[in-house]
Amino acid sequence: MNLADKTVLITGGAGVIGTAIAEELLARGCNVVACDVAGERLDAARASLPGARVVACDITRDADVARLKAETAAAFGPLHVLINNAVVNRTYSFARDAGALATADLEIDTNFRAPLKLTRLFLPELLAQSEAAIVNVTSDLAHIPVAHKPLYTSLKAALHVFTVALRDDLAATPVKVFEVQPPPVGPQKKGLYFGLTPRMPEDAFARQVLAAIEADQLEIRIGPSRYTYWMSRLAPGRIRRRMSIKKFNT
């Protein structure tokens, strides 16, 4: 896929992955709309993405999403690429935490319902383009249930399956459907991976993601995410047990 001069919307655009991808898109001459919830992180994204339109938007709110669509159209016209990247990633015990259902509702709304709604909202104009794409960012844990991330892993698995189904549904159209399964990305820190893999630098990750999209690689696993994927196939119990060892020294 040729990304040059395309109009691209990326949700979660103020996060580590979102900002890095937005920077790479700008370097390719794309018109970039990066949206995220308001706050200091969004202000930092505005400073680091001077060529992008950075919009405050809660993608779980229909009014915010309608305004986002209107601002995107007013700034750049029809959309060519939708990147569903926003995420809520919480660590908790569904069985023991009193607030588990409230946390689960937030994760469901952000991690699954919102990508579906955004896809339906923008699909008519994507279908009207000669070349367009939907890019769903899942996780290297989309194939590995993790006890202390019960909804995150479940919803990434659901988004993975939905992405495959949507790809088949749109096979005869100009809209290509990509899935990105990131490994841990960003500054190095101790955490829940127990030294399984170092975090991947965000700039290197973003470059490889866009190169894979440009090469029409529909399922994109980079670096350590290839390892976790194949372990989930070859030794699912072993990788699940290793990922589920709970530590809080993050």
What does this structure look like?
The protein has one domain: Rossmann fold (3-Layer(aba) Sandwich). Helices cover 46% and strands 14% of the residues. The protein contains 8 helices and 7 strands, in the order E-H-E-H-E-H-E-H-E-H-E-H-E-H-H. The protein has helices spanning 16-27, 40-48, 62-76, 100-127, 150-169, 202-214, 224-234, 236-243; strands at residues 7-11, 31-36, 53-56, 81-84, 132-137, 175-181, 219-221. It has a 7-stranded parallel sheet with strand order 3-2-1-4-5-6-7, with helices on both faces. Helix 4 packs parallel to helix 5 and helix 7 crosses helix 8. The protein is globular and about 50 Å long.
Please write out the topology:
Layout lengths: L6 E5 L4 H12 L3 E6 L3 H9 L4 E4 L5 H15 L4 E4 L15 H28 L4 E6 L12 H20 L5 E7 L20 H13 L4 E3 L2 H11 L1 H8 L7
Parallel strand pairs: 1-2, 1-4, 2-3, 4-5, 5-6, 6-7
Summary keywords:
alpha/beta; 250 residues; 8 helices; 7 strands; Rossmann fold; single chain
Our measurement of the CA-to-CA distance between the termini, rounded to an integer number of angstroms, reads 38 Å
Quick one: overall form?
globular
Predict the CATH topology. Answer: Rossmann fold
Estimated helix fraction: 40-55%
| SSE run | EHEHEHEHEHEHEHH
The radius of gyration is: 18 Å
Number of strands: 7
- How many domains, as an integer? 1
How many distinct helices? Answer: 8
| Beta-strand proportion | 5-15%
Overall pLDDT level: 92
CATH superfamily heading: NAD(P)-binding Rossmann-like Domain
CATH class: Alpha Beta
Largest sheet: 7 strands, parallel
The low-pLDDT segments are: none
CATH architecture: 3-Layer(aba) Sandwich
Sheet with most strands: strand arrangement: 3-2-1-4-5-6-7
Global structural class:
alpha/beta
